[in-house]
Amino acid sequence: MENNVCFVIMGFGKKKDPDTNRTIDLDATYKKIIKPAVESSGCKCIRADEIIESGIIDRSMYALLYYADVVIADISTFNPNAIYELGVRHTLRPYSTIIIKEDEGKIPFDIGHDRMISYKHLGNEISEHEAKKCTSQLRNLIKNVIADPRVDSPLYTYIPHTEQPKISEDEIKDIIGELKNNEDTIYALTEKAKKEMDAKNFAEAEKLWEKLSKKAENDKYYIQQQALCRYKSECPSRLRALTDALSLMEKIENPSDTETYGIMGAIYKRLWEETKDNSYLDSAIESYKKGWNQCKDYYTGENYANCMFMKSRVLEGEFKTHSKVEAELTFQEIIEIILKSLDESEPEEIMWKYATLSNAYLALKQPDDADKYEKAFREQNPSQWQIDTFEKTKQIYRE
């Protein structure tokens, strides 16, 4: 390879942080911070899922952990594969390893590493300001690591006379050569699946996510995406697609993250809309409530309140009152959370926050504030499907 090689080890997709219970989109970290920093430093950037064809570490992974001029290890969410691969790198190379992490997550052991960068993640996104700042920091660190290859492996630091393993140049060239033009990697398939989703080709996207789920040993991220595309495809019928999606989600044992709760809630809610079976509405409420209580995410909160609001319309007496009051209390809390986030210098997901505020105020019978934030929502130039989604929820509260 003509340039210095930077190999990136990290989790893929959305993963739950065990310390904070937040779901972090690690792909956003890679695309907005790591890859731009690596490429602007003059290095060739390769992430682990761009070279492996399954979830199991293979010889190409070991070869790059040995061969790469620089390795960046993102240990956010304490991903076990990333931690293991970081240990392998520290064994194979005394120097040129960089560690990065999301700033709210803890490090459950003492790495003793001075070449480390922390970044602030918002969960689904990273602000433009944070991305720009961290990209610059990481780019400078990469250049320094290449220019000044100081020992940064704990093994070679504490046992300085350790002899570094040697792999023949011919063997490395054979393995690296196999990586060219490989279109069946996890990364390549993931990008194809996302493009199909953007084009609303959900049936085709589902096939790709199914293939990825098998390759990545049933990683729940790929199961979630397959289920999402399954119910959105509405093939061969809306009801059949929803029941199939529910069966897929049941593969995830002991769910504990907001992404899983959100998708499960969406499936149950649509099953209730399709069948009018109130047990599905109860299941949707249970799923959304778990996600809301876990980390006060406004998306799951809005859906929880929405379902409680709809439940109040099918109940009588004190149960009706309880559901309505619970919906109103949740909407009030959501408004407080979103309004605080709007004070940030660069608030994310601003369009959906305006939409949520508008509908929350409408549900609380505060039409002036509802109109104010609806206007702000429309000023963000939403696409037609986004307007349709907003109007569908708005109609519920109008009725």
Helix content, binned percent = 55-70%
Instruction: Tell me the name of the CATH class of the largest domain.
Output: Alpha Beta
Average pLDDT across residues?
Answer: 87
Terminal CA distance: 64 Å
Order of helices and strands: EEEHEHEHEEHHHHHHHHHHHHHH
What is the percentage of strand-forming residues? 5-15%
Reported CATH architecture of the largest domain? 3-Layer(aba) Sandwich
Per DSSP, the total helix count is 17
Structural class based on helices, strands and sheet pairing: alpha/beta
Would you report the number of β strands? Answer: 7
The CATH homologous superfamily of the largest domain: Flavodoxin domain
Strands of the widest sheet, in order across it, are 4-1-5-6-7
Per the CATH scheme, the topology name of the largest domain is Rossmann fold
Which descriptor suits the 3D outline? elongated
List the uncertain runs.
Answer: none
Q: If you had to describe this structure to a student in words, what would you say it looks like?
A:
The chain is an alpha/beta fold and 399 residues long. It has two domains: 4-177, Rossmann fold, CATH 3.40.50; 233-398, Serine Threonine Protein Phosphatase 5, Tetratricopeptide repeat (Alpha Horseshoe). It is 60% helix and 8% strand. It is built from 17 helices and seven strands. It has helices at residues 26-40, 59-67, 80-92, 128-147, 154-158, 169-177, 186-198, 202-215, 220-233, 238-249, 258-275, 278-295, 298-312, 317-341, 350-363, 367-378, 384-398; strands at residues 4-9, 14-16, 23-25, 43-47, 70-74, 97-102, 116-119. The strands form two sheets. Strands 4-1-5-6-7 form a five-stranded parallel sheet, sandwiched between helices. The protein has a two-stranded antiparallel ribbon with strand order 2-3. The termini are far apart.
